[in-house]
Structures are given as C-alpha cells and as structure tokens.
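Entry for the shared binder. Reason: the reviewer on the internal report wants the predicted structure included alongside the sequence.
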Amino acid sequence: MGMMTEFKEFAMRGNVIDLAVGVVIGAAFGKIVTALVDKVIMPPLGLLIGGVDFAKLGIVLKEATVDAAGKEVPAVVLAYGEFINAIVQFVIVAFAIFLVVKAINRLHKKPAEAPAATPEDILLLREIRDTLRK
C-alpha cells in the first residue's frame, strides 16, 4: 500500500497537474497553429509566389508503379513542401511562446533588493571611531 500512497502524492503535486494542463493546452494550440499555417498563411503566400501549394511541393525519387500482382506501389517522394510548412508552424509557435513568457515576466514583480549587509570589520571600525570621538 506504500507504493500507491507514494504514487498518489506524486500525481497530486501541483507541478504534475500543471504539466498535464500545459500538455493538453499545447496540443490544442498546435492544432490551431497547424490550421492557421495550412489554411490561412500558406495559400496567399503560395499565390504570391505563383500559385504554388507548399503542401504538395516535392521531388519524386521513384514514380508510382504496378507490381507483378497488379498491386499499385506508391511513388517515393521527398516532400520538402510539408517541411516548409512545419518550419513556419514552428516559428509561429516559438513566437507565441516568446510573447507569453515575456508577458508573464512583465507581470512577475521583481523582489525588492535588500540593503547590503555591512561587513563586521567595518562595523567594528565604526564603533572604534565613534568611541575615539567621545
């Protein structure tokens, strides 16, 4: 029963729950960014470049064929257009996270700096000085 109690304490820690919420929200945010890139950003960009659909860009390394049994063998394609889409998605996600972290840092108050403690030898010298003045 000790292991179950230990596991329950681990699972109920605030950090684990925060991490789980972050993963779920991150996955949903990833879907939003994917839709934004694929459906909103890349089509006009492709149109500006000359009607290019980035998702379909690629180099065919081997054409599709039909084997002896009559079964179609798909083409081997180096799909660099999808890689470009992934890079754009990464840049958008990285920028969004940068903005969130920047906003959190701005909201987070910096602790007031405590006055520097005077070293003991300086305190003793001041005490001697004050004693000599009297």
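Summary line for the report: The chain has a mean pLDDT of 83.
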